[in-house]
Design brief:
heterodimer, A: alpha/beta, Pyruvate-ferredoxin Oxidoreductase, domain 3, six-stranded mixed β-sheet, 38% helix, 23% strand, B: alpha/beta, Rossmann fold, 4 domains, seven-stranded mixed β-sheet, five-stranded parallel β-sheet, 21 helices, globular
Chain lengths: 189, 571
């Protein structure tokens, strides 16, 4: 039975790179892996989703309702938006950083209060301020790597070296050290 | 490997020499990745029609040739496509068309399988990245064996999913000999009439081939239920029904109807699962094969998925949680610092009718800018403006067309020629952000670089406009709101056609360095909300005052120009 990871966030937060690093790790671990991405219009600050599926044999590249073992949410309410994808007993790993969407900015809708508390009541939730840890690592752009670090704790069969190797291979050379630091901050959070 | 990367790999291995495409989600990466192989010539053409025609020319000259486009791009290229079915090929020719069910990044969800039928061309449909490589390669064998262009159809979930792919070496191929053959390549009525017979004969031959080829096969397992499916639908069906019998279609036109009939006889119930239109179902039913379920169960709008197929087939849904509180939607938005924002702010402020076009600037339609009245297809802004103003001349001063640099070169020049030639008093805004933005930053003839990043003389938009007969052509920096508004008012007041080129490079370009973030002095902010009219993702209201998110602000300065109280300051 294939396992599923869903990565959700706001266009520009680096969800694509995160899914590619996770996919790379899983391929090196010997799994059949499928990733699915959406490019184009939705990437311009909209809600974005990528999927990672792995197992002995994977058919569908997409994660559907009640199928995700993990949801990795880069923003405080994006996990809530896709919560129906989480399987019973699955884990939500979420950033607590809030990014207001345009309907909130214009005042047409309000941003939910205390989304993390509400999510914790609905499912197994690991929440942290990934933006603060990314800053600590040296760049606000490393939110994706921090959250991957958190995820890595929930995948005990996968060695730390495989993750670090994937970062070395897929991140631009000048950002490798920064991202390794961000990953370890997430892993130990 | 992405499906698109795998197709590029297949082209490389097949010894393809010539690639010409126009970017379009979800097809773009094929040509970008192909361009990384030195052995293949690869280019961006100004539009899909030019791309296909040039690939046909390379095929005529004897090279294995390729073009890729999104589904709506094939509409643009339909003219050469239909007649290339008559001429056939010399070197193999493959046309990849990428559909976008659910319209992740498109203006419609047309089903390209109809083109195979209408143009009488074979169509292959890979279901994952491994098949993308295999089918791309095999398409050239088919193309040369049957003397026909071959359509290779993907969709978003095949093009933009990654799965494992084996790689082989490239088979370098010499050009096929070229010999003049007017009866085959000069499609005047006399020759074309004879070629139509060849097309029909080929179709019969391909239909026989379809019955036995390796692309189509029956996987007989539990015979209580059988599915007919292709592409990504195969993956969904197999995931929901690991034990069911499946007839998997890889060559989706002409369909292997005899083999499907034999499959149908082996299973108790037959279901046809396909996204969008009931193309297979209609043909299967027309062949006298009983179908127990198809479009009646699965619908013809949007994407399918494992849960949709399970629900349609009466399989219980998986347990899940849900967040019941209403969440604010998060639609795509122009980036902070986008050079288009000031243009749409000004058009909205002047309450103009705005005929829009295809690109990032389609986002000018979203609230709070809400500045766009229509978006149809590449270039339509300019031609629709001409029609609009011709029948409503009194409204000429209140209506503009807005089109990007790449879109203008794709299909706007002929439309602007219509305005100049037939003298409608129309004002066109060309938003020149020096890149093809929405598809992820591709070069175009106005940027000065090719797909392989060779420096070339850029097209001068001013000279093109002047050349087709527009006398009033001016350029303006769209981040200077005062100058922009003046330019628009002046050109709208003129009694002849005019073009305003709003020129500022996309903020996401590497060479564009962001300014330090601006900030707001809380005590000076009078909460008038003028700045909020920009719809900038870096601006928000907190505790009754405007606030700039310094993780997003790139210091474009638009909000500062709008603040009457001097509350917004540079870093």
């Amino acid at each position: 039975m294939a396992k599923s990871i869903m990565i959700v966030g706001v266009g520009g937060q680096g969800t694509l790179l995160a899914s590619r690093i996770i996919g790379y790790v899983l391929v090196n671990k010997g799994f059949d892996v499928k990733l699915s991405e959406v490019h184009g219009m939705s990437q311009r600050g909209g809600s974005v989703v990528t999927y990672v599926k792995y197992g002995d044999k994977v058919y569908s590249p997409i994660v559907d309702k009640g199928e995700a073992d993990f949801i990795l949410s880069f923003e405080a309410i994006e996990g809530a938006r896709y919560l129906e994808m989480l399987k019973k007993g699955g884990t939500l790993i979420t950033n607590t950083h809030e990014i207001y969407p345009i309907p909130v900015i214009t005042g047409a809708m309000s941003y939910p209060e205390n989304p993390t508390e509400k999510l914790s009541a609905l499912c197994d939730t690991k929440a942290l301020d990934a933006l603060a840890l990314a800053r600590e690592a040296g760049s606000e752009k490393a939110v994706n790597t921090v959250l991957m670090g958190v995820l890595s704790r929930y995948m005990p069969d996968i060695e730390e070296e495989l993750w670090l190797k994937a970062i070395e291979e897929l991140v631009k050379p000048k950002f490798v050290e920064l991202n390794k630091k961000a990953f370890m901050l997430g892993r130990n959070a | 490997m992405l499906g698109n990367e795998a197709i590029a790999r297949g082209l490389y291995e097949a010894g393809v020499k010539y690639i010409s495409s126009y970017p379009g989600t979800p097809s773009t990466e094929i040509s970008e990745v192909a361009a990384e192989y030195d052995e293949m010539y690869a280019e961006w053409a100004p539009n899909e029609k030019v791309a296909l025609e040039s690939a046909l020319g390379a095929s005529l000259a004897g090279a294995r040739s390729f073009t890729a486009m999104k589904h709506v791009g094939l509409n643009v290229a339909a003219d050469p496509l239909f007649t290339s079915a008559y001429t056939g090929v010399n070197g193999g020719l493959v046309v990849c068309v990428a559909d976008d069910p659910a319209m992740h990044s498109s203006q419609n969800e047309q089903d390209s399988r109809h083109y195979a039928r209408a143009a009488k061309l074979p169509m292959l449909e890979p279901a994952d990245s491994a098949e993308c490589r295999d089918f791309a390669k095999a398409a050239y064998e088919l193309s040369e064996r049957f003397d026909t262009p071959v359509l290779l159809r993907t969709c978003t979930r095949v093009a933009h999913s990654q799965s494992l792919v084996e790689q082989r070496e490239r088979e370098e191929r010499a050009l096929m000999p070229y010999a003049k053959n007017p009866a085959k390549y000069v499609m005047n009525p006399g020759f074309a009439y004879k070629r139509h017979f060849a097309v029909e004969d080929r179709l019969q031959e391909m239909a026989r081939y379809s019955e036995t080829c390796a692309f189509n096969y029956a996987d007989i397992r539990d015979t209580s239920v059988g599915f007919v499916c292709a592409g990504t639908c195969y993956q969904y069906v197999r995931e929901v029904f690991p034990d069911a019998s499946i007839y998997k279609i890889g060559l989706s036109f002409p369909l292997p109807l005899e083999s499907i009939k034999a499959f149908a006889a082996k299973v108790e119930k037959l279901y046809v699962v396909e996204e969008l239109d009931g193309v297979f179902e209609t043909e299967i039913r027309a062949a006298g094969i009983h179908v127990d379920g198809g479009k009646d169960l699965f619908g013809n709008i949007g994407e399918l998925s494992q849960s949709k197929i399970a629900a349609a087939m009466g399989v219980p849904a998986k347990e899940n949680a849900s967040f019941t509180e209403a969440l604010p939607a998060r639609p795509p938005v122009m980036c902070a610092g986008c050079p288009h924002r000031g243009v749409f702010y000004t058009l909205s402020k002047l309450k103009l009718t705005v005929l829009g076009d295809i690109g990032c600037y389609t986002l000018g339609a979203s609230a709070p800018l809400s500045a766009v009245d229509s978006v149809v297809c590449m270039g339509a802004s300019v031609s629709m403006l001409h029609g609009f103003n011709t029948v409503r001349p009194e409204g000429s001063g209140k209506c503009v067309a807005v089109i990007g640099d790449s879109t203008f070169l794709h299909s706007g020049i002929t439309a602007l020629t219509d305005i100049a030639y037939n003298r409608s008093v129309s004002t066109v805004l060309i938003l020149d952000n020096s890149i093809t933005g929405m598809t992820g930053h591709q070069q175009n003839p106005a940027t000065g670089y090719t797909l392989k990043m060779q420096a070339v003389p850029p097209v001068s938009l001013e000279k093109v406009c002047e050349g087709v007969g527009i006398r009033r052509v001016r350029s303006v920096d769209p981040s200077d709101l005062k100058a922009l508004e003046e330019a628009i008012k002046e050109e709208l007041a003129a009694d002849e056609p005019s073009v305003i080129i709003c020129r500022k490079p996309c903020m996401l370009l590497k060479y564009v360095k962001p300014n330090p973030p601006f900030s707001i002095e809380r005590e000076k902010c009078k909460a008038c909300r003028s700045c909020m009219k920009l719809g900038c993702p870096a601006l928000r209201f907190e505790a009754g005052k405007a606030l700039i998110d310094n993780t997003q602000c790139v210091g474009c300065g638009l909000c500062k120009q709008l603040c009457a109280f001097g509350a917004i300051k540079e870093a």
